[in-house]
Amino acid sequence: MFDFDATLPFMALQFLLLAALLNVIFYKPLTKVLDDRDNYIRTNTLEARERLAKAERLAQEYEQQLAEARRQSQATIEAAQTEAKEITAQKIAEAQKEAQAQREQAAVEIEQQKQEAMRSLEQRVDALSRQILEKLLGPSLV
C-alpha cells in the first residue's frame, strides 16, 4: 500500500523548504507587523489614558480655581453691600441731623419773630392806649 521510495524523502524535503520559505517570506514579516501594531495600540492606549488623567486633573484644578474665584467674588460683593449699607446709614443719619438742625434753627427764628411781634404789639398797644387815654382824659393828664 505505501510505497517508500525516493519520493517520500523528497516530498518531506519540499515540505520543509516550503515551510522555511513561508516562515522567512510571509510569517516573520506578518508577525512583525502584528507585533508592531500591538505595540502601537498599547502605547497609544497608555498615552490616551495619561492624557485623560491629565485632562481630568486640569479640569478638577480649574473647577477648584473657579470655585475659589466665586467665593472671592461673593465675599467682595458682600463687603461692597455692607459698605454701601454703612454709607447709606451714615448719609441718612447726617441728613436727619441736618434736618433736625434746620428745624431747631427754624424754631429759634420763629421764636425770635414771635418775640419781635410781641414787642411790636406791646408798643402798639401802649401807643393806642395812650391815644385812647389822651382822647378820653385829655393830653395834659396823660
Structure explained in plain terms:
- One of its GO terms (cellular component) is endomembrane system.
- It is found in: Cellular thylakoid membrane; Endomembrane system.
- The protein is 92% helix and 0% strand.
- With 142 residues, the chain is mainly α.
- The longest helix has 131 residues.
- 0% of the residues are buried.
- The mean pLDDT is 91.
List the defining traits of the structure above:
single chain, 142 residues, mainly alpha, rod-shaped, transmembrane helix, ATP_synth_b
Secondary-structure blueprint:
Layout: H1 7-137
Helix content: over 70%
Largest sheet: none
Low-confidence stretches: none
How does the overall form come out from the CA principal axes?
A: rod-shaped
SSE class: mainly alpha
Structure described in brief:
This protein is mainly α.
